[in-house]
Amino acid sequence: MKVIVPVKRVPDPYGRVRLNASGALDLADIKWVVNPFDEIALEEAVRMRERGAAVEIVAVSVGTAECEPILRTALAMGADRAVLIESAEGVGDSSTVARMLHAVIARELPDLVLMGKQAIDDDNGQVGGRVAARWGAPQATFASAIEVSTDGKSATITREVDSGRETLRVTLPAVITTDLRLNEPRYVALPAILRARSKPLDRIAAATLGEMPAARLSVVRMEAPESRRRGRRVGSVAELVSALRDEAKVI
Amino acid sequence: MEVVLVVLEMTGEEIAPSSLPAITFAQRLVERWGAVFDVLVLAGPRAGGIGGAAISFGARTVWCASADALAHPTADSAAAVCRLAMAASGASCLVGAASSFGKDMLPRAAELADLPMVSDVIALAPDASGRRFQRPMYAGNITATVEISERAAAFSVRASAFEAPRRSAAQSEVREVAFEAANLPRGTEWISADAPMQTRPDLTSARVVVSGGRPLRDAETFERLLGGLADTLGGAVGATRAAVDGGLAPNELQIGQTGKVVAPALYIAAGISGSVQHLAGMKDSGVIVAINTDPDAPIFEVADYGLVADLHQAVPELTRTLSSARPGAPAPRVEKPQG
Lengths: 251, 339
Ligand SMILES: Cc1cc2nc3c(=O)[nH]c(=O)nc-3n(C[C@H](O)[C@H](O)[C@H](O)COP(=O)(O)OP(=O)(O)OC[C@H]3O[C@@H](n4cnc5c(N)ncnc54)[C@H](O)[C@@H]3O)c2cc1C
Ligand SMILES: Nc1ncnc2c1ncn2[C@@H]1O[C@H](COP(=O)(O)O)[C@@H](O)[C@H]1O
Description:
The structure holds two protein chains of two kinds.
Chain A: E1 2-6, E2 9-11, E3 32-34, H1 36-50, E4 56-63, H2 68-77, E5 81-86, H3 94-108, E6 112-116, H4 127-135, E7 139-148, E8 154-161, E9 164-171, E10 174-178, H5 190-196, E11 201-205, E12 217-223, E13 232-234, H6 237-247
Helix pairs in contact in A: 2-5, 3-4
Chain B: E1 3-8, E2 10-11, E3 14-15, H1 21-33, E4 36-43, H2 47-51, E5 61-66, H3 75-89, E6 93-97, H4 100-112, E7 117-121, E8 123-124, E9 132-137, E10 142-148, E11 153-157, E12 173-176, E13 188-194, E14 208-212, H5 219-233, E15 236-239, H6 241-245, E16 266-270, H7 276-279, E17 287-292, E18 305-308, H8 311-324
Helix pairs in contact in B: 3-4, 5-8
The complex binds flavin-adenine dinucleotide and adenosine monophosphate.
């Protein structure tokens, strides 16, 4: 089985994201990491291989040369090789990212594309469904458990949904997106990081993937949301109750 | 003239109230554009009757798509039907709620229709072009204004940012979407749902949410303390990721950047540190109460009322005080603040 894991470079979720004076992202203190949901996808692919299911794991990122370190992290986590779709002029919108990923998928012909349910920077949550549609493959999003059948022809997925959980079966090839509870990614140890240095990382110029339409969605302005007025401390439950009743009038 | 198609969701055999804010967004969009909107109802074999429930919102047409396979619509089949309904209605835009159903199905439908998509839209930007919208990014740390290049796009609508839709006197015509059920994609098979019976109000539309985090210890304590307080207030229960990961609460209670987004009139956060990821899902609440042992916990920065206390004492005391203060109950023994 071949598994493709698209990975995005995003700011560390535990860091602070700020805007600078000109309203752009303040890049000064940002630590860049693999999107947490993509880490979960990588971990799941590695576990499939450990169970004897997955044969080859290919990590793919769309972006600039700055994405190389996160592809190396993916290799250290257990990907066999990595592909960087290099696009100096930015990645466009979710639709162009999906097109570029699909172009690589159409070459590699994986049995499974395992990816994040959302990138925690733009919080779009679109690329999974778009790739599946473009590829004409079934999709199962928000997976908290995945079981690939022994013949490798289908997978049974438990999904986290608004009402609880749902179970689906998809025929492979398919696109599955990960949710938080799927697994806990392992800690990457130094020997694995060293080994990752000699694993193959191919670069493909985005321009060679065929004509890409211009982005049809753009961010024209970013601002900090209005912050809440700071409240006050109450000294006891009784004081809290009277504040809620007499001051805020919410109970 | 543009046509905007709104896809509604079902719970059982009824239209899910949580999907109605998508209509509110569409009403504003078509008002701005001088356009019209249609509604699509996807359901099992009885969709025809259900469509009738959607005729009073001012839609031109209510489209019903019914097939056995749509009783539990998968993204593959729902997106395929949306594509057909867009063609039948001449729609250039597709709108749905940013629920787990919408987040699953809308991007697929957007790609099938070759449209850009604005995820989690919270407002129409005051802009002459009518093509600018606001949406949160970076766990709500940034509000972005985004622009679509033409009046053709998909939108997932953040329900907590829009009120219920206006009713209209005129009734929509009801029509069937014509399609061969046998031609729907069959790569995905719905097997089962594990949806616990809801005894409390829907989390995303509840007036009061009582929410808890890691220090609740176990599922029994979580339910006893927070469920007890929620029931006293007629509210819903929510949780942090840490509480869900730790098995204290089921996944459908997770509030935050990667869970549900709520904006109740009253949000009570007990034993919640206030991570950016959690704040992303609740900071637009009316009144926020924080109960935390750590006086420096970040949750206090967004709280209207902060109580530095152990929740294991404070929450039961709060429940007792409130239940004894209910109408008909003996008068509460609340001490008068001094001075
Ligand atoms: C990709 C990603 C997505 C995420 N998505 C979400 C999300 O959607 N929602 C979400 O909530 N989190 C999310 N998180 C996790 C988030 O970063 C925090 O880890 C999480 O919100 C912390 O939960 P908590 O407040 O319950 O636990 P902690 O941070 O451990 O806080 C517990 C708090 O309880 C207080 N406390 C301890 N004992 C008591 C007591 N007896 N009485 C009163 N107070 C007490 C402590 O002082 C502390 O402030 C996400 C993280 C990542 C990386
Ligand atoms: N630039 C990118 N390169 C590789 N994968 C990406 C990229 N952007 C998004 N993805 C994948 O798509 C998922 C969803 O991202 P998004 O739709 O942008 O929220 C991510 O978790 C990644 O798996």
